[in-house]
Amino acid sequence: MNSPLLDERPTSTATAPADGNADFAFSSGRWTLEASGGEVLRPVFGRSPGAAREVIHDLQERERATGRTQVLCGMIPFDLSEPAELRMTDDAVWTPHVASGSGDVVPGQLPAAPESERFRHNVSEALDRIGSGSLEKVVLSRTMTMRLKDADRRGAEERLFDRLSAVGGRADVFRVRLEDGTSWIGASPEIIADVNDSRFVTHPLAGSLGRSPGGPDAEDATRLLSSSAKDLHEHGFVTRHIRESIGRLASELQVPVRPQLFVTDSMWHLGTRITGRLAPEVSALEAALAIHPTPAVGGTPVGPAVRTILDLEGGSRSYYSGLVGWTDSSGNGRWSLALRCASLAGQFITLYAGAGIVAGSDPESEHAETASKFGTVLRALNGLV
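^ isochorismate synthase, sequence as received from the core. Prediction below:
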């Protein structure tokens, strides 16, 4: 259960008090990055394998031309054939992250995660496809939408971000305001690429068990997950994918034989801390894109899994289960999966949750897993919806 963080230092951007009004906020470990302004880029990374290096080259050129430290930050969608929204800016500050107690969560009745017969049906359909041999794993998701009580959406966003920061533990807590007026807020437990001075860490999670009062404790969860052929099988898909995807970009790759228990506020997970050393020219952005989408959010084989997702879910996931994070001109940075998250549009907030489907999965159990995953944001919304 060790933290997968490589390094919790700020980059060379200025350190100054944060004002809470930034376009982009990303809180990881001991530091929070806030960034605003600059130039908004919308690269489509699925069109060109060299797109990541082109973006980093542009970042470096801007830094040389302006003499000011630049940061690239934002969100990349689940489907890489859709455009990302990234901000290239010198208006970026690091502030020490200080836990703020309960984050002002008030007692009250939480909304229940809705029942979804469609999700159960989709799981059954996916199991049929797995049984036919057309794919081995697919991650299916569902949503729930509620109306905010307060007309002050920006204030609600700040309270939600603060609450998630207070209870998120080792999660990467993010808030991203996009140019179309929507915002994304979440507490990601899953690091895709953390890079400092070419040292690389990724920490995939797959194989899960919900946490609840009276449920399994750490010892029981370790025993249950580590003895579950289904969960170990599911986790193995992810670690093999990462080994194959990042192997051409990294040396000294270390992939532990067995996963360890990783805990979040609502779940127990199997996690594997994978480390290596990237080639000097490889940035955190390029490393993250080499891995994304992993079987932890898509499935395997990737092509059939993504087609199954589009077919059964019936539309774009947008930034849910995509990437959120930052990179600097030296290639250092951190990208995490946009999980345990919600999008806000107008006065409505939509929560997202998914579960990995493999041979042996049960529609009712997967439905319950998604309900547990909604809990991270639901609890933080108490009193706001």
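The helical segments are 51-66, 117-132, 153-167, 218-226, 229-246, 284-291, 302-313, 363-380.
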